[in-house]
Amino acid sequence: MPPCDKLPAEPSQADRFKKTRAAQSAALSEDYVELIADLIEIEGEARVTDIARRLGVSHATANKNINKMKREGLATSKPYRGVFLTDIGAALALFSRNRHRIVVELMRAVGVPEDVAEQDAEGIEHHVSEQTLLAFERFLQTR
Length: 143
Hints:
Number of domains: 1
Distance between the termini: 35 Å
Structural class: mainly alpha
Oligomer: single chain
Number of strands: 2
Largest sheet: 2 strands, antiparallel
Shape: globular
Strand order of the largest sheet: 1-2
Strand content: under 5%
CATH class: Mainly Alpha
CATH superfamily: Winged helix-like DNA-binding domain superfamily/Winged helix DNA-binding domain
């Protein structure tokens, strides 16, 4: 690795890391709401067991994260029923789905295979700024 001849200004570098930490925090809720919306649309309900299996986490972890989403106003649940999205949660799911679609389309446009694009988009979609996402969309519209 070539040596770094100059560090960025401290405030600029701190802002970069702050943005990354915020994106990592939001990614969890975005993944959950997107999956819950998909399960409700396709299966008719989103059960904690199904959410845990599809996200590859324990039932306890899924419950913990769903409870956090309830506190944030993104989801609700009913005893012996599944998890439901609030209007805010449904809007976030739609927003997340759109980001995911744009990132996948861009990667496919530059030759990434579909399965790899889908997998990579799961990480990238949470870290792309709105400005970059708009540039992706413009690029996709002009090709």
